UniProtKB/TrEMBL annotation:
GPI inositol-deacylase winged helix domain sequence ranges: 14-89
Source organism of this protein record: Aspergillus glaucus CBS 516.65
Stated name of the protein: GPI inositol-deacylase winged helix domain-containing protein
InterPro entries attached to this UniProt entry: GPIID_WHD (IPR054471)
Amino acid sequence: MGRIKGQDGDALDLAMGVLLWITCTKRQLTTSELQHALAVEQGVPKLDKENIPQVDDMVSVCAGLVVVDEESSIIHLVHYMTQDYFEARKKYWFPDAESNFTIICVTYLSFNYTFESGPCLTDEEFEARLQQNPLYNYAAQNWGYHAHAAATKLDQLILDLLKSDSKVFASSQALI
Protein backbone atom coordinates (compact mmCIF):
# COMPACT_ATOMS: atom_id res chain seq x y z
CA MET A 1 0.00 0.00 0.00
CA GLY A 2 2.99 2.25 0.44
CA ARG A 3 3.59 2.33 -3.32
CA ILE A 4 -0.05 3.15 -3.94
CA LYS A 5 -0.18 5.87 -1.28
CA GLY A 6 2.99 7.41 -2.76
CA GLN A 7 1.30 8.22 -6.08
CA ASP A 8 0.04 11.65 -7.12
CA GLY A 9 -3.59 12.73 -6.64
CA ASP A 10 -5.29 11.31 -9.74
CA ALA A 11 -3.39 8.02 -9.71
CA LEU A 12 -3.97 7.62 -5.98
CA ASP A 13 -7.70 8.35 -6.36
CA LEU A 14 -7.99 5.84 -9.20
CA ALA A 15 -6.09 3.15 -7.30
CA MET A 16 -8.16 3.60 -4.15
CA GLY A 17 -11.35 3.56 -6.22
CA VAL A 18 -10.34 0.33 -7.94
CA LEU A 19 -9.40 -1.31 -4.65
CA LEU A 20 -12.62 -0.11 -3.01
CA TRP A 21 -14.81 -1.67 -5.69
CA ILE A 22 -12.78 -4.88 -5.94
CA THR A 23 -12.67 -5.38 -2.18
CA CYS A 24 -16.11 -4.36 -0.97
CA THR A 25 -18.75 -5.07 -3.63
CA LYS A 26 -21.37 -7.81 -3.43
CA ARG A 27 -19.82 -9.67 -6.37
CA GLN A 28 -16.81 -9.45 -8.64
CA LEU A 29 -17.07 -6.87 -11.40
CA THR A 30 -16.04 -6.95 -15.02
CA THR A 31 -13.63 -4.32 -16.23
CA SER A 32 -16.43 -2.45 -18.04
CA GLU A 33 -18.63 -2.44 -14.91
CA LEU A 34 -15.74 -1.05 -12.89
CA GLN A 35 -14.88 1.53 -15.54
CA HIS A 36 -18.43 2.86 -15.41
CA ALA A 37 -18.52 2.80 -11.60
CA LEU A 38 -15.35 4.87 -11.45
CA ALA A 39 -16.64 7.36 -14.03
CA VAL A 40 -19.87 8.29 -12.21
CA GLU A 41 -19.97 11.77 -10.68
CA GLN A 42 -22.46 12.48 -7.91
CA GLY A 43 -25.06 15.02 -8.96
CA VAL A 44 -24.27 14.72 -12.67
CA PRO A 45 -27.26 13.30 -14.60
CA LYS A 46 -25.23 11.47 -17.24
CA LEU A 47 -21.98 9.59 -17.65
CA ASP A 48 -19.14 11.64 -19.07
CA LYS A 49 -17.26 9.23 -21.35
CA GLU A 50 -14.11 11.28 -20.75
CA ASN A 51 -14.13 10.04 -17.14
CA ILE A 52 -13.99 6.35 -18.05
CA PRO A 53 -10.54 5.10 -17.06
CA GLN A 54 -8.56 2.76 -19.27
CA VAL A 55 -8.22 -0.82 -18.02
CA ASP A 56 -4.42 -0.65 -18.27
CA ASP A 57 -4.44 2.44 -16.05
CA MET A 58 -6.70 0.77 -13.48
CA VAL A 59 -4.29 -2.15 -13.27
CA SER A 60 -1.04 -0.17 -13.30
CA VAL A 61 -1.98 2.31 -10.55
CA CYS A 62 -2.67 -0.63 -8.23
CA ALA A 63 1.03 -1.53 -8.25
CA GLY A 64 0.69 -5.25 -8.93
CA LEU A 65 -2.23 -5.88 -6.55
CA VAL A 66 -4.87 -6.44 -9.26
CA VAL A 67 -5.13 -8.48 -12.43
CA VAL A 68 -7.71 -9.02 -15.14
CA ASP A 69 -8.90 -12.50 -16.01
CA GLU A 70 -8.65 -12.43 -19.80
CA GLU A 71 -11.39 -15.02 -20.26
CA SER A 72 -14.08 -13.45 -18.06
CA SER A 73 -12.85 -9.82 -18.01
CA ILE A 74 -13.21 -9.90 -14.22
CA ILE A 75 -10.80 -7.59 -12.43
CA HIS A 76 -9.69 -8.95 -9.07
CA LEU A 77 -6.94 -8.93 -6.49
CA VAL A 78 -3.88 -10.90 -7.51
CA HIS A 79 -3.96 -13.38 -4.62
CA TYR A 80 -6.43 -14.60 -2.00
CA MET A 81 -4.08 -13.36 0.74
CA THR A 82 -4.37 -9.86 -0.69
CA GLN A 83 -8.15 -10.24 -0.58
CA ASP A 84 -7.93 -11.42 3.04
CA TYR A 85 -5.76 -8.41 3.93
CA PHE A 86 -8.25 -5.91 2.52
CA GLU A 87 -11.25 -7.79 3.91
CA ALA A 88 -9.77 -7.62 7.40
CA ARG A 89 -8.97 -3.91 7.05
CA LYS A 90 -11.77 -2.61 4.88
CA LYS A 91 -13.22 -0.45 7.66
CA TYR A 92 -9.81 1.23 7.90
CA TRP A 93 -9.12 1.65 4.17
CA PHE A 94 -12.73 2.14 3.02
CA PRO A 95 -14.84 3.42 5.95
CA ASP A 96 -17.52 4.92 3.68
CA ALA A 97 -17.69 2.07 1.16
CA GLU A 98 -21.41 1.39 1.47
CA SER A 99 -22.33 5.08 1.25
CA ASN A 100 -20.06 5.49 -1.78
CA PHE A 101 -21.61 2.47 -3.48
CA THR A 102 -25.12 3.73 -2.76
CA ILE A 103 -24.32 7.14 -4.22
CA ILE A 104 -22.75 5.65 -7.35
CA CYS A 105 -25.49 3.05 -7.93
CA VAL A 106 -28.40 5.45 -7.34
CA THR A 107 -26.76 8.17 -9.42
CA TYR A 108 -26.19 5.68 -12.25
CA LEU A 109 -29.82 4.52 -12.15
CA SER A 110 -30.93 8.16 -12.15
CA PHE A 111 -29.21 9.06 -15.42
CA ASN A 112 -31.76 11.03 -17.42
CA TYR A 113 -30.61 10.11 -20.90
CA THR A 114 -30.71 6.38 -20.20
CA PHE A 115 -33.42 5.48 -17.74
CA GLU A 116 -35.93 8.34 -18.01
CA SER A 117 -37.56 6.47 -20.90
CA GLY A 118 -38.57 3.69 -18.52
CA PRO A 119 -38.32 -0.04 -19.12
CA CYS A 120 -37.31 -1.45 -22.48
CA LEU A 121 -40.17 -2.78 -24.57
CA THR A 122 -38.27 -5.59 -26.28
CA ASP A 123 -35.58 -8.06 -25.31
CA GLU A 124 -33.32 -6.53 -27.95
CA GLU A 125 -33.70 -3.05 -26.44
CA PHE A 126 -33.01 -4.46 -22.98
CA GLU A 127 -29.89 -6.30 -24.15
CA ALA A 128 -28.69 -3.11 -25.85
CA ARG A 129 -29.26 -1.17 -22.62
CA LEU A 130 -27.23 -3.74 -20.67
CA GLN A 131 -24.40 -3.53 -23.22
CA GLN A 132 -24.36 0.27 -23.28
CA ASN A 133 -24.63 0.59 -19.49
CA PRO A 134 -22.42 -2.09 -17.95
CA LEU A 135 -23.05 -1.05 -14.33
CA TYR A 136 -26.85 -1.15 -14.80
CA ASN A 137 -27.33 -4.73 -13.64
CA TYR A 138 -25.10 -4.39 -10.57
CA ALA A 139 -26.57 -1.02 -9.61
CA ALA A 140 -30.19 -2.18 -9.94
CA GLN A 141 -29.61 -5.37 -7.99
CA ASN A 142 -27.46 -3.97 -5.18
CA TRP A 143 -28.23 -0.32 -4.46
CA GLY A 144 -30.77 -1.28 -1.79
CA TYR A 145 -28.30 -3.54 0.01
CA HIS A 146 -25.65 -0.83 0.00
CA ALA A 147 -28.14 1.83 1.16
CA HIS A 148 -29.22 -0.38 4.06
CA ALA A 149 -25.59 -1.04 5.05
CA ALA A 150 -24.48 2.60 4.68
CA ALA A 151 -23.57 4.50 7.82
CA THR A 152 -24.65 7.77 6.20
CA LYS A 153 -28.30 8.38 5.44
CA LEU A 154 -28.81 9.15 1.78
CA ASP A 155 -32.57 9.60 1.90
CA GLN A 156 -32.85 12.54 -0.51
CA LEU A 157 -30.72 10.90 -3.19
CA ILE A 158 -32.79 7.73 -2.96
CA LEU A 159 -36.10 9.61 -2.89
CA ASP A 160 -35.11 11.49 -6.04
CA LEU A 161 -34.68 8.15 -7.81
CA LEU A 162 -37.89 6.69 -6.41
CA LYS A 163 -39.95 9.75 -7.43
CA SER A 164 -39.40 8.88 -11.09
CA ASP A 165 -41.70 6.02 -12.07
CA SER A 166 -39.86 5.52 -15.35
CA LYS A 167 -36.48 5.17 -13.61
CA VAL A 168 -37.93 2.81 -11.00
CA PHE A 169 -39.47 0.65 -13.74
CA ALA A 170 -36.21 0.70 -15.71
CA SER A 171 -34.27 -0.32 -12.58
CA SER A 172 -36.76 -3.05 -11.76
CA GLN A 173 -36.42 -4.54 -15.22
CA ALA A 174 -32.84 -5.56 -14.42
CA LEU A 175 -34.11 -7.61 -11.48
CA ILE A 176 -36.18 -9.93 -13.63
